[in-house]
Amino acid sequence: MKPKTQRKTKYPGVYVDLNGSYFYQTEFGIDRVTGKRVRKKGRKDINGKPFSSAFEANKELIRLKREFHKVNSYANYKMAYGQFMDKVYEPYYKTEVEESTFLARKTPLQIIRNRFDSIPLRDITVEDVQNFRTWLLSSKEDGGNGYSQSYASLVFGILRKSLDIAVEMQYLEYNISKKVKAIGKGKAIVAYWTKAEFEKVLQQIYIGDFYEHLNFVMLWLYYMTGIRVNEGTALWWSDVDLEKRRLRVHNMLILKNKQDWKRNFYTKTEDGKRTIALDNDTVKVLREWKRRQSEIGMGSENDFIFSYDGLPMLKSTISRIIKRYAKLASVKEIQAKGLRHSHASYLINEFNVSVLVLSQRMGHSSPEITLKHYSHMWEGADTVIADEMEGNIKIETAKETQIKFNGNQNLKK
After folding, report:
1. Among 63, 268, 313, 365, which is most buried by a count of CB atoms within 10 Å?
2. Same domain, yes or no, for 58 and 132?
3. Among residues 321, 138, 290, which one has the least CA distance to residue 222?
4. CA atoms within 13 A on the CB side of 125
5. What pLDDT was estimated at residue 406?
């Protein structure tokens, strides 16, 4: 049995030899680049001075461990942002959001990639981030892309989130973008059609043509129900009960193209699953369209309502339809989601619907969400109440004071 040449101290990894000299000896872990174990042993501090105590040896060991982990954790310091996006962030992001959300974020992700692709992660500077922020907010005349503030906020937010993940994954020590002011979303008011504008649009549609008839049904159902765009494109005839006048909204369509789509059995939120009551006019419109579809072999339970060829309707097609008829009717062009806002406006202005009923019809998780998006539409809605308040309370005041003043002469006067 070999005699012991060293003994432990109270500090892990710190020893003292037979001569009373202190030293450290330990393994730091695995080098991420070479894959080899990293072992360290030393008897002197950073200044070359031998340790005079176990405390000094431990102090140096802690310093070396901290330095090693700092360097080793960020050993892949040459990784470019584009590589990080491909290998780390996009795969992570894809698992964190709905497929429809990920597909919708492809363009913002590409905008960021185009800007930072070849720059090493650790070389991205505050100036780089600030210049990107300025570019996002700049008009085309000033060298930018003319993005809306809400879209610029979205893109910049994704950049910040990606660098947060780089920190969590230990590719960076800190998120450099946090040193630059975030871009606020701004107050985004979505354009919508009033009742009068919608009526003008309908006057431009010739339902004698099969495709135009589809256009009419699509615009009508969105306007009269307030369903989300991908909720509408997912509708099958099995979702409609024409006898009970009910529309079941339980699905959303994830669609890359007309041949590559998926009908999910859930909506944007859990509260989005709902059943909407239909008016008789809408029931009549749907009955006639189903009969029209049946003439070409469609209209069965699992056929799309918004279809002329058995395939689902693209969101870009909906946008083109809106643009075409808006131009013909000489009304403002709106986005596809503007039809949802149009429905909210219609119910508020024509029927003074309560926020609770509107919230349930729109599939919001709470009335607070409804107010957040549509509170501006109730502006002026209390005018009728104000008019009715006039003369409701009889004004009759006392003919002389009932108060005896004590002290303040100014009040007596």
Report:
1. 313
2. no
3. 321
4. 3
5. 66
